[in-house]
Batch of 3 targets.
Target 1
Amino acid sequence: ELKVEQNPLFLSMQEGKNYTIYCNYSTTSDRLYWYRQDPGKSLESLFVLLSNGAVKQEGRLMASLDTKARLSTLHITAAVHDLSATYFCAPEYGQNFVFGPGTRLSVLP
Amino acid sequence: GAVVSQHPSRVICKSGTSVKIECRSLDFQATTMFWYRQFPKQSLMLMATSNEGSKATYEQGVEKDKFLINHASLTLSTLTVTSAHPEDSSFYICSAHPGQGPQHFGDGTRLSIL
């Protein structure tokens, strides 16, 4: 059975701190996407990771992919309140995505 | 960037009503479109995959007679929730796939059945 897990599911952190969100998936995939969702909104694309060892950074967020370990990470550096949202990872299989359960991040002032 | 338009953004209607949601790719042709449902504080669950000119492929547990999908052109797919009931209340999101690269998501439709 295809499973995608995220850890943690809920994260409350202080502004200025660093933290990492983990995404594990059970079946090999060569591509993985990270999305952000604000309450009541649709998905906003953050990163597309296309190969093993891929690392991408945008602002305070950095994502990496290890296809052999079936693991992706989303690292938050010096968090700010504007990063509060739910973050989903989604490995790609064919044209389809399988979404993780999401990590709800709250950054406290 | 690629834009997917989803309409309406919000629907409130009485139980027993049928509701149609449209998903349009505005600047590319989408051979495949996807329909997702998201309950509060949960992840997105794929309902069906819609291919232009052919029947949609439904995920296990999704009633095809309840959720009618039509993909009549390369830029338009519609989802009709027939005889909607309160348990159908949810956030419905479509996405369109241009053939290469990532899916592009619509803004979602919040459906509330009274």
Note: Chain A has a mean pLDDT of 94.
Target 2
Amino acid sequence: DAGVIQSPRHEVTEMGQEVTLRCKPISGHDYLFWYRQTMMRGLELLIYFNNNVPIDDSGMPEDRFSAKMPNASFSTLKIQPSEPRDSAVYFCASSFGQGALETQYFGPGTRLLVL
Amino acid sequence: GNSVTQMEGPVTLSEEAFLTINCTYTATGYPSLFWYVQYPGEGLQLLLKATKADDKGSNKGFEATYRKETTSFHLEKGSVQVSDSAVYFCALSPREYGNKLVFGAGTILRVKS
């Protein structure tokens, strides 16, 4: 199994530019999660999907952030316009089945730097 | 609300030393508890989990016991190795929120040979 795949692994952009992060979950998984990791705030859940439908987006910081899951094998997290405070590592994770017991499998992350 | 508090790091140990990383939680109801590990440059991996009071999760020599009376889930290992150097995250999943995970701040562990 290839695991959760994220791209790009590193992104450097300038303030005001649009940034798109991509995620391919593990095949057959029905939950997909987007997290942000920073030194100041730790690991935060931004949004999660079940069967491609957004379930909880209460962690999305503001309207500049949007996430989509057009099909079971692909999701994007978009920041438009980007700001320096968006610099962080963004993780995608996926899991199978409902409930607190299900293991989430994390991708390697995208390290974003906004100048 | 739901939150997780971990001991601050970094924790620096010599190889074969005993490891304890403290974790306490605040939650409504009875959450499931997890320890995840993040090796340098990688995503998080599940290390162990426990779903109810007095359950003990264990994996790769690590173990943690779900203590409801002290709302704790401390991570222990009897003899650490250099390869255990990583960041360790304690997390809970509130039962009313399904798959949602709430993470602690993470504790850096450095093991010297």
Note: The first strand of chain B starts at residue 3 and ends at 6.
Target 3
Amino acid sequence: GDSVTQMEGPVTLSEEAFLTINCTYTATGYPSLFWYVQYPGEGLQLLLKATKADDKGSNKGFEATYRKETTSFHLEKGSVQVSDSAVYFCALSPNQAGTALIFGKGTTLSVSS
Amino acid sequence: NAGVTQTPKFQVLKTGQSMTLQCAQDMNHNSMYWYRQDPGMGLRLIYYSASEGTTDKGEVPNGYNVSRLNKREFSLRLESAAPSQTSVYFCASSDSGSWEDTQYFGPGTRLTVL
């Protein structure tokens, strides 16, 4: 079945460091891909998404490109801030109506000043 | 515009007790979902409702029932709670259930079963 694998955490960085969180997927067809972020004590918020191959999603300085050839959707940010500390989830939505998201296990990011 | 709301925020139950988690959305979305979040497991789908009047099982439906009361509301019921149901429960909604749709999440209910 469809699945998402993302790098294990926690990831610990200093402020202004470069961030990469790897995400790969297995799916039949052409899913949509998402990154969600969860701040402590809160629900999940959409960070960015891409719905077809070679699309780049971007938001708040974060970027991810839908790579069909490598089945990947890696999250990157050029300069992290303390306020980026959160849990990041990669997810896919199979390309059929009426289905829900399939999530990776989440990666905890901790940024120190 | 409140988005997706959930009640209660916290709940402690004893084994065997029952309870209903409430979820409502004010975005006129057609599809609604219930997930559970456990440490190191990501989120897993319990049930979903593609549209008013329909419900379907997800990955982990055992021990749960759902009701899509109307277009706005989607409740999750635990008939006889077990310690394995200790988790954080999230409700979500999306416009049409298309695979391209963004799902919007509520703030969650933290449930402990003793």
Note: The mean pLDDT of chain B is 93.
